[in-house]
């Protein structure tokens, strides 16, 4: 039933479904044998709770800054370009530090790494909120690096310990990400006002959830996850055009997402909203992503490929962005909802493409590393460009050109990545590791 590894002809939906089913059966059989030798999860409910709490902490460090960015800039004397750099650094670190995750996991174990990185995340949050301009930038780097490492490790833990529920668990993981982002975007300004009208305390508050997640994750460090594993090598991915199309789509849609995280509240404040109102609009837009992030992959796999779905959701996201930037404020919430629906779908489709364009789990892991490493590095240029253009023009109206160019690039890359093809590489078994 499995196709020739060198056959790069388009696969029909029925053939792809059969192939994926066969791969899942083999993977589940391997997982059952592994679990018989080494009990992976003695208390699955505790692992599930730990995963949710960890995922909740992977976006607040990014989305909590946006509603306070104007106040922080005035307090510390930041230019718009420096503010743009502040929104760019964490996203850049997502890409630059992602390759470090598997190295650390092989050396110390994924569970220990997650625990340690949660502590560095808490430290980064404290550093950026308490030590002036230097601490602001250094803490942002540390927080972004921490999120980049954990973000690579969690999906692997989900696949390993919840193999039969991997799809549902990935949905829970994605929802927790969106919920954490929405909570931070909507509550950071009210928190800072309650805590003595101090932006530093409002930002520093998000250290507490990170430490709480570390406490609930601590029992996982004592679990035994050792198992007989085969090492695989995937070569040629960087020379594959389809792999680059997937990567570019991931990076460009992420660029728009992090522009929203970093700059949307400032844009809305510039249009007349209060910081609290602007934070609530961002929070509401992110909450809506819960709906489309779950629905879009299912709908997109009903057809022969994902090209039409990618075009539709990117147009929705661009429409919402342009509406928030130019349309009358009376209809702002409608545009924010449209933006959230579009961006939730674009992100979940980017993750779905990694799976659909890969022949097996090993290729998917390598394609995921490539798409996140290069993609997030590319994505970091968007928020920085917004800061530079705002500094040059002194306003927000020129940002429409940035939105349009990034969105057009994402559509072009997405149409290529959405074709029913596989990347032209295969995984090769190297040796056995004990």
In short:
Keywords: Membrane, Transmembrane, Transmembrane helix. GO terms for molecular function: transmembrane transporter activity. With 434 residues, this protein is an all-alpha fold.
List keywords for this structure.
single chain; 434 residues; mainly alpha; Growth Hormone, Chain: A; globular; MFS_Cyanate_Porter; transmembrane helix; CynX-like; CynX/NimT family MFS transporter
How is this structure best described in words?
The protein is mostly helical and 434 residues long. It has a single domain (13-433), classed as MFS general substrate transporter like domains (Growth Hormone, Chain: A, Up-down Bundle), CATH 1.20.1250.20. 76% of the residues lie in helices and 3% in strands. It is built from 18 helices and two strands. It has helices at 13-37, 44-56, 60-63, 69-76, 80-96, 100-108, 110-130, 132-161, 166-194, 199-204, 207-221, 241-270, 275-300, 307-326, 332-356, 361-379, 381-393, 399-417; strands at residues 229-234, 427-433. Strands 1-2 form a two-stranded antiparallel sheet. The chain is globular and about 55 Å long. 50% of the residues are buried. Residues 1-41 have low confidence and may be disordered.
């Amino acid at each position: 039933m499995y196709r020739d590894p060198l056959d790069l002809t388009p696969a029909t939906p029925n053939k792809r479904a059969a192939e994926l089913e066969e791969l899942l059966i083999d993977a589940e059989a391997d997982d059952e044998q592994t679990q018989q030798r080494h009990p992976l999860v003695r208390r699955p409910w505790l692992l599930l709770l730990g995963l949710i709490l960890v995922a909740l902490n992977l976006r607040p460090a990014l989305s909590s800054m946006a509603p306070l960015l104007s106040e922080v800039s005035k307090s510390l004397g930041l230019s718009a370009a420096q503010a743009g750099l502040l929104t760019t650094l964490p996203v850049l670190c997502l890409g630059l530090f992602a390759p470090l995750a598997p190295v650390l996991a092989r050396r110390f174990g994924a569970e220990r790494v997650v625990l340690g990185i949660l502590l560095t995340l808490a430290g980064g949050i404290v550093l950026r909120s308490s030590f002036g301009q230097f601490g602001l930038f250094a803490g942002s780097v540390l927080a972004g690096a921490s999120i980049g490492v954990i973000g690579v490790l969690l999906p692997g833990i989900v696949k390993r310990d919840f193999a039969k529920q991997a799809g549902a668990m990935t949905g829970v993981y994605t929802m927790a990400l969106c919920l954490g982002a929405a909570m931070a975007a909507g509550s950071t300004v009210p928190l800072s006002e309650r805590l003595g009208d101090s932006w530093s305390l409002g930002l520093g508050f998000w250290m507490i959830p990170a430490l709480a997640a570390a406490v609930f994750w601590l029992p996982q460090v004592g679990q035994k996850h050792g198992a007989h594993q085969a090492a695989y090598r995937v070569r040629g991915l960087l020379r594959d055009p389809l792999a680059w199309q997937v990567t570019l789509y991931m990076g460009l849609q992420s660029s728009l997402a992090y522009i929203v995280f970093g700059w949307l509240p400032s844009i809305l404040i510039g249009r007349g909203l209060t910081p609290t109102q602007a934070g609530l609009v961002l929070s509401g837009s992110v909450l809506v992503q819960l709906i489309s992030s779950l629905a879009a992959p299912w709908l997109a796999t009903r057809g022969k490929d994902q090209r039409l779905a990618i075009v539709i959701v990117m147009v929705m996201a661009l429409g919402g962005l342009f509406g928030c930037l130019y349309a009358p404020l009376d209809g702002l919430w409608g545009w924010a909802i449209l933006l959230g629906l579009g961006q939730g779908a674009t992100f979940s489709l980017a993750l779905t493409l990694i799976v659909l364009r890969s022949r097996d789990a090993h290729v998917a892991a390598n394609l995921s590393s490539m798409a996140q490493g290069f993609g997030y590095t590319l994505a970091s240029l968007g928020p920085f460009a917004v800061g530079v253009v705002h500094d040059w023009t002194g306003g927000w109206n020129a940002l429409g050109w940035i939105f349009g160019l990034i969105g057009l690039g994402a559509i072009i890359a997405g149409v290529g990545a959405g074709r029913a093809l596989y990347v032209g590489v295969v995984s090769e078994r190297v040796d056995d590791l004990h």
